[in-house]
Amino acid sequence: MTKRVFSGVQPTGNIHIGNYLGALAQFVQLQDGNECIYCIVDMHAITLPKNPGELRGNILDVAALYLAVGVDPARSVVFVQSEVPGHAELAWVLMCNAYTGELSRMTQFKDKSRGNESAPAGLFVYPILMAADILLYDADIVPVGNDQKQHIELTRDIAVRVNNKYGPDTFVVPEGRFLKEGARIMSLDDPTSKMSKSAESPLSRISLLDDASVIKKAIMRATTDSDGEIRFDPDRKPGVSNLLTIHSAFTGTPIARTERAYSGRGYGAFKKDLAEIVETSLAPIRGTYEEIRYSEELIRVLKDGAERANAIAERTMKRVKDRFGLGTGRA
Length: 331
Ligand code: AMP
Ligand code: TRP
Hints:
Elements (H helix, E strand, L loop, with lengths): L2 E7 L7 H13 L4 E7 L1 H4 L6 H18 L7 E4 L5 H10 L4 H5 L2 H7 L7 H16 L4 E4 L4 H18 L8 E4 L33 H9 L17 H14 L3 H7 L5 H26 L3 H29 L7
Parallel strand pairs: 1-2, 2-3, 4-5
Helix pairs in contact: 3-12, 4-7, 4-13, 7-8, 9-12, 10-12
């Protein structure tokens, strides 16, 4: 039986090779043999204040990147969260079946609200909106990074809780598909922390749309160590190990073979080759992105995606309303 896949990415700038290797590449692979739904979660993005003009731009950026990396709108549904009202509607129903205690334990909430006496309520219930995203589409599989594990667990807990109370097939209980440890890409200038969209230094990451000179600069300046040996040892050589991970992720070459190939040669040669590999891998993505980012085609894809998503969401909402006794049942 074909499985349904659902995932979402927030429309923020600086989508980087960590997002690509960790999440987007998986989205593309999962299209074979599954029914995939990929969302741009703009309502999640406003949990912290956003500039409206920038947000609109970022939504289209991420949509264009989805297509540029190989998400195929003929096979997968691609849409913007706020264009399907069911997300907010189901989120309310789920909020009434979740507990403040379990939400208080979410580490992402604790991190983002740290130091503030009061935080936006949206930040607190963010995981419930995420649960609604997933349960609205009866998703079987949710490909995400390890940082989302706790949110997936909460989604499963809520689904099971509602099923116990309102009928076993109210919701499909989804499974997370988490990245392998090796797929975690670290910051280039501080390889002990994760590559992130929000780090201040642009040299900490390679964004998917960076051009050759920026890519080269970031890789040539990447933090390594002084022993000059190209060897995978994340504890003692986090910088070199991160570059080996990136090399292997882009080329498919096992790390051990790359270690042998560069044995006795300096970091300079390895970095130079790696910069070229990353640049050749990203160039076609950048090319397609530029072709479609400002096209009418992109708007059409998202409109069609929202229609297809809405058709599924409306069926789920009807089922949920019937189970809960909401409305007259005749609308
Ligand atoms: P975010 O940047 O939090 O919107 O993440 C979008 C997706 O990319 C999520 O599935 C993350 O787990 C994944 N991701 C973010 N940063 C990295 C990283 N440095 N390495 C691997 N995957 C990442
Ligand atoms: N919370 C996810 C992140 O920060 C984004 C997200 C929102 C998501 N809704 C989702 C991911 C549903 C998977 C499924 O990365």
